[in-house]
């Protein structure tokens, strides 16, 4: 089964997270969901309709804003080459991402919760890091290994 990281499809590799042209992103997304089996990491709600037509289930990770901010800062400063990261991308703390997590995401969480309630698919709701950890244990999943820690400090851009 292939894992699809939508941020990798949405952004051009070897850039500082520069978005692809929208039509290119949609084509990559639609090609990914055309496969028989896949797991998608990410939202990009404009593409929910075609994705949910092909999906066989949904796992909603709904962790708090504080936890999201902590995880973003930790992975940006301490983890290089993380699973789902942009190939050749530059991971650094960005004001735009801090704004997205702190200001935009809380509204998205409410919308995604409503989508979750209305979907007629098998669903799993994981409302905390503790719930995610318990799910890993219950399903006997292994956490991806980090490739290497960042060796230099990275600053706000």
What does this structure look like?
The protein has 157 residues and is mainly alpha-helical. Helices cover 46% and strands 10% of the residues. It has six helices and four strands, in the order βααβαβααβα. The chain has helices at 6-10, 22-33, 48-54, 65-78, 95-118, 129-138; strands at 2-5, 38-41, 58-61, 123-126. The strands form two sheets. Strands 1-2 form a two-stranded parallel sheet. A two-stranded parallel ribbon has the order 3-4. Helix 4 (65-78) packs across helix 5 (95-118). The longest helix is centred in the C-terminal third of the chain and has 24 residues, at 95-118. The chain is globular, with a radius of gyration of 16 Å. The chain starts with a strand and ends in a 19-residue tail after the last helix. The relative contact order is 0.18.
Our measurement of the CA-to-CA distance between the termini, rounded to an integer number of angstroms, reads 36 Å
Whole-number radius of gyration?
A: 16 Å
- Unreliable segments (pLDDT under 50, ≥5 consecutive)? 147-157
Estimate the mean pLDDT confidence.
89
> Total number of β-strand segments?
4
Adjacency order of strands in the biggest sheet:
1-2
In terms of DSSP E residues, the strand content is 5-15%
